[in-house]
Amino acid sequence: MATRASDMETMTGTSSIFDPQLYRRVRRPTLAAEGLPPWCYTSQAFYDREVERIFRTEWNFVGRADEIAKPGDFKVFDLVGESVIVLRDQAGGLRAFANTCRHRGTRLLDGTGNCKSIACPYHAWVYALDGRLIASLGMEATLDFDAAEHGLLPVRLEGETLADYLGDLPKRFAAYNFADMVCVRRKEYDLACNWKLYVENAMEDYHTPTVHRKSIGLQQTALEEGGSGAWDAIFMPAPQTIAVLPEDSASALPPIGGLSGKPASGTFFTVIYPCTFFATTQDCMWWLQEFPLGPGRTKVSVGSCFPRATVARPDFAEKVQKYYRRWDTSLPEDNAISERQQAGLASRFARPGRLSVHEPAVHRIANWVLDRVLDPVLDSAAPR
Ligand code: FES
Ligand SMILES: [Fe+2]
After folding, report:
1. Residues with beta carbon < 5 A to ion ligand 2?
2. Which one of the ligands is nearest to 216 CA?
3. Res. 378 pLDDT band, cuts 50 70 90
4. How many other CB atoms are there within 10 angstroms of residue 258's CB atom?
5. In this structure, are residues 292 and 274 in contact, taking their beta carbons and an 8 Å threshold?
6. Is residue 127 within 6 Å of ligand 1 at its C-beta?
7. Please, are residues 234 and 224 in contact by the beta-carbon 8 Å criterion?
8. I need a surface site. Which of 9, 87, 157, 260 has the fewest CB within 10 A?
């Protein structure tokens, strides 16, 4: 049996941090379990394993299709050191390509924009929006050079597998009619914390009375809300939107048309694994997308979406300020506490902690990660 002292040795590299024995307490039921050991949030080796087995393997949220509405619209998506061009082609279809020139590898595009074709800034090879290499001046004398073999490398975008991955999520959240929503504001934060800390924070209400006591204040306890597919949710009953601060509730915007049952009577906090979070309340939704940059660094992109009819109201521009005020207050509170947690976890004295009844989703996130990062344990290799 490993002792805590030997767990500490593991942190300093004297044995494998991927030994499933080190995580046996995380595998217990929530109220008997411990959280992930601190090194899961600080170790480069653990992070590298997550990149390989989670971020380069699972589906990642790129954005909303309305961001690239017209033919030629593109968006460059950078995640864990890979760069992908996502674009709308001439026929209106969505495509994704590795952002690397087939000549000598130069990065092709940055940011967002509109283009008729993709020209490499180095030797001016040109690719059509469907990825075909359509110009490569200077290559005429090259032996056996067939332009047809040097198109951009496609990257998988959506498809059947994604539907399987999401399970019943699209059905369960159909009432919110996300396709009819408009993203009215985006914001980015660069945080000194591990990506898992930020997801965990978004998926528990235990911290609300302390971290948000001056802003959101007391909220009701959230309830479990699962489904099939790679997502997890908690539901917090509340008679009206929680997307404005309590003192601004009189200036809330109208609810989303046609909501009934649970969506009309509270807020869902949902994570699509690995790290896309969204909250849906009576009148709007907001999402947090995380871009892990290293074990202790994460870029977070936040978007706010309202129904088209709400955005068209003459009082929208004025009233939405209250919503921005709420997010610009509560998100920095979560950001600061997550960075503070990361700082504490970096201590060599940090230990795995026990979990409360308010943290079942934190426990499930830990196990979801371990299921992918650790090698499967064979029966014959069971407890030592
Ligand atoms: S590297 Fe792109 S054209 Fe040479
Ligand atoms: Fe929070």
Report:
1. 334
2. 2
3. low
4. 10
5. no
6. no
7. yes
8. 260
